[in-house]
Amino acid sequence: QVQLVESGGGLVQAGGSLRLSCVASGDTFSNYAVAWFRQAPGKKREFVAGINARSGGLTDYADSVKGRFTISRDNAKNTVYLQMNILKPEDTADYYCAARPSYTSRRVADFRSWGQGTQVTVSS
């Protein structure tokens, strides 16, 4: 088991930046791949970015955020980050991190450990 807690959400203007953090506990963090998902009211939860376990050399991004968002991990701090730049109003959502063994995925159903979410609001 791994427990996850997100933080770093808030209100920003379009074009601004936020850095989200996902802090893990309860198991060996380096063995878990981590992905970020987001969900806006009335919409399905969608994949944002993922990173593989250990060194995290392999990353994956949704087309909608590619070039603007960067996922990274610091195993010594049991933390995965999502750096979000050039934010757009359509990025407004609750953001969740999720963990699974070894390899990341784009599918919600592939993940069993989830954080509580952190709200991101981008104003125009």
Which terms would index this structure?
124 residues, mainly beta, seven-stranded mixed beta sheet, four-stranded antiparallel beta sheet, 11 strands, 0% helix, globular
Describe the protein:
- This protein has strands spanning 3-7, 10-13, 18-25, 32-39, 46-51, 59-61, 69-74, 79-84, 93-101, 113-114, 118-123.
- The strands form 2 sheets. Strands 2, 4, 5, 6, 9, 10 and 11 form a 7-stranded mixed β-sheet that branches. The protein has a 4-stranded antiparallel β-sheet with strand order 1-3-8-7, with no helix packed on it.
- By secondary structure, it is an all-beta fold.
User: What's the SSE pattern?
Assistant: EEEEEEEEEEE
Distance between the amino and carboxyl termini: 40 Å
Give a short account of the largest sheet.
7 strands, mixed
What value does the average pLDDT take? 97
The percentage helix is: under 10%
Which shape, going by the Cα principal axes?
A: globular
Structural class: mainly beta
Instruction: Give Rg in angstroms.
Output: 13 Å
How do the strands and helices of this protein lay out in sequence?
Blueprint: E1 3-7, E2 10-13, E3 18-25, E4 32-39, E5 46-51, E6 59-61, E7 69-74, E8 79-84, E9 93-101, E10 113-114, E11 118-123
Parallel strand pairs: 2-11
Antiparallel strand pairs: 1-3, 3-8, 4-5, 4-9, 5-6, 7-8, 9-10, 9-11
Quick synopsis:
The chain is an all-beta fold. It has no helices and 11 strands. Strand 7 and strand 8 form a beta hairpin.
